[in-house]
TrEMBL record:
This is non-specific serine/threonine protein kinase. Its EC number is 2.7.11.1. GO terms for molecular function: ATP binding; protein serine/threonine kinase activity. The keyword Transcription does not apply. It comes from Lysinibacillus halotolerans.
Amino acid sequence: MASMNRIIDNKYEILRMIGQGGMSKVYLAMDSRLNKQWAIKEISRINKNGFSEVNLKAALDEADMMKRLDHPALPRIVDIIQEKDVIYVVMDYIEGEPLSKLLENGNAQPQEQVIEWAKQLCNVLDYLHTCNPPIIYRDMKPGNIMLKPDGQLKLIDFGIAREYKENKVGDTVNLGTRGYAAPEQFGSHGQTDARTDIYCLGMTLYHLVTGRSPAEEPYGGVPIRELNPILSSGLEKIILKCTEANPNDRYQSCAELLYDLERYDEVDDTYRQNQKKKLKRFGIVSAAAVFSIVFGAFAQVMNAQKVNNDYEVNLDLGDTATTQEQKINYYEKAIDIKPEKHEAYYALLTTFKDDASFQIEEEQILKKKINRNLAELVETDHYSDLAYEIGKTYWYYYDYGSENTDDNQLTRIKAAKTWFSDVVEDPENEHYAQAKIYESIATFHEEVNLKVEEASDQGMYKEYWDNIEALLDFTIENKNESEIVKLEVYKLITNALENEVRKFASDGIEKDDLLEVFYTVRSLVDELDVSTDKTINLKESITSRFDEVVKAIDTAFIEQ
């Protein structure tokens, strides 16, 4: 067992015990290599105090589950050390205090603060629920929520969390904290799912905003305004819906709950009364007819507002999600809600490009959404802008799996053409000139081989050279262009100079013009700071061809 100042695994020095539970002890430790503090959970292998191998397996399952998660509100597992009698799980040390500490002596927390905490907790629960397979936390309570000095929350203690198994009739173990736990966590009420966590969260919010623990007799809660009449009736309704006994009567997802939390004042009775007063100002003339018209219009407006809000909620959830899978999921939902709006498509493209690679699987997702909604999209004012961004995504990021980078570049260029052609159909679009250049370069690469076979390629190369020069100028003017885009443009030009220089010369392009562009590109490549393995390798690949490019230019003009 760990003791003060003991060194574990030759690097973790035990400083002090900071927690103890039935199955484990938790120590604060210092990493001698990184000079960083970690929390170390010590789990005994020895069967004592009634704990069995089942409990040990549960603790190890918790550690294994946590290793796979990546969210700012969850602690990371960084190491697992197995010894003869104990297992040590090394994880983030979370500075701060549990929310239960703030609730000592019945201290209710400010309503606005509780709502902000609720939004954070909704976000992390939604992350867990949309994992594959979904993870159900099952023990939400103030004691398991750490408040950090920066005001952010961390969810701890995954000892009873479980992966949701579809079609499973019921859970085999009754687990949870009485007062906070949902009815289905006890007895034979069915298996737990995302709605179970929503119940536990509702009881946690109840405790935070009233100061009254649902874990004390009488168990459970009452409407919060019975304890404090100044609290919002909107928040009261939200908590009551969270804590319905029947899961079907609760919020069905954390996204749905977050939607109401963002607008809790609109659920408030006072807000609704004010809205009714506004309606009364329309007058009572032809009351029945007017009421019918106004109510119908009002209902349409409210429905449109709800759709718009659902769209915005999914966009916000996507923006704050921590994994690519989650971001894609939320942006797809947003597109399904309002397929004619462009923001979710842009967000989806940005997510695909985050790793500097637009994969075939991602292309299928994009095509599915675009093709399904194309008729609506082409009628919007922003379609040409969207087509331009899709074209650039293909041109610079598309990766269909070939290890030959030159082949990959040509495939990207050809795949992008159709999107730039759509932009070119809109001469008023601000990207028209750039799109025309991209389209012309793509057309050259599509047609040049056939033209060479037909011996009809004379004259093509002058236009091609003019276009890649113009593309270089656009790239230089755009100071905010990404390093991958800049490098791909430089690569396109160096490849053209090395492989097509004789054709350029035969089409009348002067040697000095070619060298001027080459020296410009070489200077830009040398000056460019790169930050990823992909761009480092790409820069090295381009630089390695510089000597060959100079030789190719010299040779082409000696032969003339």
